[in-house]
Amino acid sequence: MAEINHFEYGWITPALSYALSVLGSVLGLIFAGRIRAASSAGQRVWWGLLAAWALGGTAIWTMHFMAMLGFAVAGSRIRYDVPVTVASALIAVAAVGIGLAIVGTGRLSVVRVLAGGLFTGLGVAAMHYTGMAAMRLNGQLGYDAVRVGLSVLIAVVAATVALWLAVTVRRGAAIFASALVMGVAVNGMHFTGMSALSVHVHEQRGEVAGAEVGALLIPIVLLVIFGVVGLVYALLAAPTDEDRAAAAYLEARRAPASAVSGQAAIDSPDPVGLRARSTLARPGAPFPSRRDHPPR
């Protein structure tokens, strides 16, 4: 059995993975809080997609990949199957999105939260082990069933708590505190699942196919940067409650003023018939006949 090192670069990778999970959780909780406050189905879908990307893509999947940078196996190089790695990211985003759809629509209930948490937690666990299956090395992977089951249980509990927080937490301090807790839960699930792994290195070493970590690191880092910038921009560009209230107030002020000005124009004297002439001058207006003019 080969020696496994989960922290090849010390505490840099777990610290970065925790920071990413907290950042994604903060953004995801803010977006999820706007799902129920949305006034239309289109807005709910929009905020749901952003929340799914923030939680599933940033808080869970990029955290997983960042933690994997510190994973090393003695006696074998590690590479990754790119399509399977991409599939793991899609699984994470889709699982969170469906979970948010379950708890974010209709009347909130315990059954909805539990069902959404179960589905999302199983999806997160599937993302983790799909990402592990994307590894290519000169050996065979093995898993301890008890620890795998424990990691799945942690994923379900963490997802249930995350969805409940997503639809109940509103204040800034509470959102940040909840994100700190979610970061601990996500990282706890990841490293519990990693502790279940064992590797039996083959004696005859062959060429390992797949992409190296360095080749994937740059595009993933760019994806994280542009993704976070896009999420923050979408949050800042969205109208707030104060903006909507101000717009409604201005519209209410504008409507009576336009009505009064229109009525004043109708009631004003027109001794020479300018208003009638302007009406007749419009395209399509009927041409006056002799009956319309009184005899002289």
UniProtKB/TrEMBL annotation:
<feature type="transmembrane region" description="Helical">
    <location>
        <begin position="15"/>
        <end position="33"/>
    </location>
</feature>
<feature type="transmembrane region" description="Helical">
    <location>
        <begin position="45"/>
        <end position="72"/>
    </location>
</feature>
<feature type="transmembrane region" description="Helical">
    <location>
        <begin position="213"/>
        <end position="236"/>
    </location>
</feature>
<protein>
    <submittedName>
        <fullName>Signal protein</fullName>
    </submittedName>
</protein>
<keyword id="KW-0472">Membrane</keyword>
<keyword id="KW-0812">Transmembrane</keyword>
<feature type="region of interest" description="Disordered">
    <location>
        <begin position="255"/>
        <end position="296"/>
    </location>
</feature>
<dbReference type="InterPro" id="IPR005330">
    <property type="entry name" value="MHYT_dom"/>
</dbReference>
<feature type="transmembrane region" description="Helical">
    <location>
        <begin position="110"/>
        <end position="129"/>
    </location>
</feature>
<feature type="transmembrane region" description="Helical">
    <location>
        <begin position="149"/>
        <end position="167"/>
    </location>
</feature>
<feature type="transmembrane region" description="Helical">
    <location>
        <begin position="174"/>
        <end position="193"/>
    </location>
</feature>
<dbReference type="Pfam" id="PF03707">
    <property type="entry name" value="MHYT"/>
</dbReference>
<feature type="domain" description="MHYT">
    <location>
        <begin position="9"/>
        <end position="200"/>
    </location>
</feature>
<keyword id="KW-1133">Transmembrane helix</keyword>
<feature type="transmembrane region" description="Helical">
    <location>
        <begin position="84"/>
        <end position="103"/>
    </location>
</feature>
<dbReference type="GO" id="GO:0016020">
    <property type="term" value="C:membrane"/>
</dbReference>
